[in-house]
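From the pipeline queue, job 12 of 40. The input is one protein chain; the requested action is below.

Action: predict structure.
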Amino acid sequence: MNPSRRLLYALAAVLCLGLLLGTAAALESTVPSAIRTAWWGLLLCLGLVATFDALHLHRLPSPELRRVLAGNLALGRWHEVQLEIRHPLTRAMRAEIFDHVPAGLDMQALPQQLLLPARQFCQLSYRLQPTRRGHFHFEHCEIRLFSPLGLWRERRLLPLQSQTRVYPDFTQLHGAPLMAVDRWLSRLGVRQQPRRGLGMDFNQLREFQEGDTLRQIDWKATARNRTPIVREYQDDRDQQILLMLDCGRRMRSQDGPLTHFDHALNASLLLGYVALRQGDALGLYTFATEQRRFFAPAKSQTQLNALLNGVYDLVNTQRPADFVLAINDVLALQKR
């Protein structure tokens, strides 16, 4: 518990008055005894009022707090966090709120002062910007209460558990929200189109054209239509794509707000999204790190989410990248 400025100013005024009285007495000036008695009475009253005000503040129950925080945050983007406060007493009270944010998260609009209404909920909000990926735990929230007369203030550290995960924000590569990725890829000319060929996947029946071979003719369809009809196939384009992510010391260089490793991770996830959208199987392997991770290529709709959950907490290291060892490891893990 600390004295407020109001108490310090009041105490300074009383002491200055006492200093004047003492100076007058030292100069052998006549000071009425009533003034000296009044000064001692004023000092005693100030002490008693400050004591009762401090006791009242110490007995006040702490407000009830609740933090509203998204479970997933995007790296480098601003997110809003809300604190809900309920004051249990029958009279309003002034307070100051400061949330203890883990390292790796920048914040704005803290601390904040507000008037807590009696037996009601109130809200305040502030902004968070993650500066690194990973799993973050919120442990405490600090509240500073002011006494009814404003002579004291008390700092209370209240336990308030929350956690969130910071994922790579690969949508920053094109400056569009995730829902607009398909439109952005279309503008780049990335489209899924069947390629005519002699593969095993049947595409359609069509009339015979110059350059078609006799083995492409569908004789039953030709007999029905009384004109040469050929079977058109499309090449099998399903591919297995395995992304190899270097987590070594060469990727520690900073490029803007992100490291080369973060840029490579964002580009890998965007490339993976395009590959899955095209119907290819996607996998990922990390090397030059103690956190070696391997995801076998798969074409399921949940593969990208699995990759995000598997690499969101990756960090680059001081280890050198051994590409020969990485390739041999991949060949041992991925048989085909």
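Job complete. Residues 173-179 have pLDDT under 50 and may be disordered.
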